[in-house]
Amino acid sequence: MKIGNLIGGSGGSEFDDSHELSLIYSDRCKSVKISWSADHLESVCFVYSTHRPGLVHGGENGRYASPLREIFRMNADEEIETVNVIIREVPLQVLDMITKVYNDVNVTIIVGIQFSTNRQRTTKIYGSSDGRKIQDRAPFGYTFGYARGRSGLFVDALQFVWYEKC
Q1: Do 164 and 1 meet the contact criterion of CB atoms below 8 Å apart?
Q2: pLDDT digit string, tens, across residues 83-104
Q3: DSSP letters of 7-63?
Q4: pTM here?
Q5: What CATH code would you report for 2-164?
Q6: Which pLDDT tens digit goes with each residue over 19-40?
C-alpha cells in the first residue's frame, strides 16, 4: 500500500472510506459520483465493489445537492490510475464566537477534479480548472484503493491510497 499526499485544506471533518465502509483489499472502486458548482467541488462519493453504498463527502453529506452532478462509471477491468485535483484559496467569513464579529480568512478548498484510468479514459474536469493543479498518480504496479480526506460544506481535501496490483 502507498499513500498519496493530502491535497487541499484543513477545513471540514476527516473521513476514511476504508475504515467507514470496512473495505477489504479486494474491494475496488466501481464509480465516482461528483457534484460541483462554478467555484467548488461540492461532494464526491466513491462507490466500491462492496454491497454497501458509498459515502457522500462534502455538501454536508449530500444535503446541498448542486444541479451540476455526474457519475463516472468504470468498466469491470478498468481502474483509476491518475487523479488531477485543482485547489484554490477562497475568502471565507468566519464568526468569532467570543466577539460575535465576522473575520475574513482565506481557506484552501478543492475546486475541481479529473480522473484517468488504465484504459486510457480521461474524464472532463468536474468543477473549475481555475486554480493550482496537483496530480496524484498510482506508482508503477499499483492502482487506486480508496479515498480519505476532509469535508463539510464542500470537499476540503482528498488523499488517495494506492494498492499493489494482484
Answers
A1: yes
A2: 999 999 988 777 677 887 888 8
A3: EE-S-SEEEEHHHHTT--TT--EEEEEEEE-SSSEEEEEEEESSSSPPPPEEHHHHT
A4: 0.89
A5: 2.100.10.30
A6: 999 999 889 999 999 999 888 8
DSSP 152: S
* In the chain, % of residues over pLDDT 70: 95
Exposed/middle/buried for residue 7 (C-beta within 10 Å: 0-12, 13-18, 19+):
buried
* Calpha distance 38→111 (Å, rounded): 8
d(Cα 152, Cα 37) in Å, to the nearest integer? Answer: 15
Each domain of the chain, given as residue ranges in start order, spans: 2-164
Nearest to 151 by CA among 29, 64, 30, 23: 64
